[in-house]
Amino acid sequence: MGIGGRKKIRIGDLLVEAGAITQEELDQALEKQKETGGRLGNVIMEMGFISQELLITVLTAQMGIDYCEIKAVKIEDDILDLVPEAMVQKYRVIPVGYDENNPNILKVAMVDPMDLNAIDDIGISTGLQVEPMFSMEDDMNEVIGKYYGNTQAMEAAEQYRKEMMAGGLTTADEEAMNEDIENSPIVLLVKQIIEGGVRQRASDIHIEPLESCVRVRYRIDGALKQVMTYDYSLLAGIVARIKIIGGMDIAEKRKPQDGRITIVVDHREFDVRVSVLPTVYGEKTVMRLTSKDGLTKPKSALGFGPEELKVFDGILSNPHGIILVTGPTGSGKSTTLYTSLSELNTEDVNIITVEDPVEANIDGINQVQVNVKADMTFAAALRSILRQDPDIIMIGEIRDGETAKIAVQAAITGHLVVSTLHTNSAASTVTRIIDMGIEPYVAGDALVGVIAQRLVRRLCNSCKAPRLADEDERKILGVTDNEEETVIYEPVGCPLCGDTGYAGRIGVYEMMPVSKELQAVIARGSTADVIEKQALSEGMLTLKMGAAKHVLNGITSLYEMKKITYETGDEY
Hints:
By secondary structure, this protein is of the alpha/beta class. It has 22 helices and 18 strands. The strands form four sheets. The chain has a seven-stranded mixed β-sheet with strand order 12-11-13-14-10-15-18, sandwiched between helices. Strands 6-5-4-9-8-7 form a six-stranded antiparallel β-sheet, with helices on one face. It has a three-stranded mixed β-sheet with strand order 1-2-3, with helices on both faces. α14 (about 380-385) packs parallel to α15, α15 packs across α17 and α16 (about 425-435) packs antiparallel against α20 (about 530-535). The longest helix has about 30 residues, at about 135-165. The protein is globular. The termini are far apart.
């Protein structure tokens, strides 16, 4: 068995024995575990006492078992069928395959490979000898969700249909039943859809009625992917359930509605914004998922190169003026804003934000939510904020001339203002502000930096394939010296990245600090082209150059780069 004479050993003690953590750290972690629950290994990692790599190395060495990166394994159906689903859910285990040399040994990935009861139960149920392997809990939850989530959802859906048929329920009856019973099939189905979205890193979940069925799609890394279709008869129940948990009016089916849900999945809190829209086939629901701690990333995780980091820090170190972050919806502007606020968030400054809605809560920052019904518009909120002795003001978005005027006023009177705009490039942002009614000389004076950004998908490191770029591609990438061959990478697809070839995204930036010379160009009321020319001569890198760098470094593909550059109107 390789588990010291079948004695149950605690993971915490193993780590202390190996010298990976101290006894004090273990005691602190045990205290924390009492409060929050969860597995000890995870608690120790969350508290920063040990990295995931070290935890895996120590445990596998100490226990004499192998580590299994469960997300990277393709598990065959006949293997999955060996262990009953109830056991999989109860013990958090998943069968991986037979031992290469002995078909009587079943390899089983486990979150707790020390769980002798689990090993015995699986052994009895399968009639095979069990070889435990160690897997991380988050990976395990994701994989169990992937293999069993859909079957659970399908069973719930099937059961709901049977109940509908058997009772001959009309829609009115069914609403009268009010779907709030915690384990009724439709409740489980909706829970499964949301949890599935979280575990597959979706940013949005679409539940849409088509002519004969209901389709569920997840937006993962910016691209929609169909995950499920259900019988059309389930639509009314699903929408009613979502309206209940989102605090909406169940009876109203002809008007668009929106609501919010807070859910906890795998010990992380998520904020879900829900929008319901009547379409010709019924109500379509879209849920936007944001993790409460997901928006505040360290600077290093945003994808800045060393040069860009210098420029970014330079822009942030201005004592007053306006910093604008621009780009289309979903290009990561909020994340950049929150990161810069966290950078500036020290106890000697007063930071106030006005947002619609507040997307993430940051300690030590005063956040105000826009409320149009109560006449709390961006402009009204800003006027009051200026009387609150702020040093730094963040405006969620500059939408109109009035907000722009107050923002400029605040910047000129000695505040640092950070905000977003929907424009394509850094230079066109300046002309947009002027179009909103700000005088060019005032704009030149107030602006201290503009950052235009986009997101590109990162290639999956375990399956990307290299190839040589041809002449045209080299031209697009701006590689002119013909000496060396240029290697670029293509997406392939494997179990780790859900067969998409991509995993995660990275930012591409165009940073334009406003220098004295650039200020003079803006003050003359120049066009975007002239402004851009001046910025380029001062060393600004365009979005296209930034994306090309990522392609040449093998981080993203040419296809992703083209999506950005066509959008910004760059000519090849």
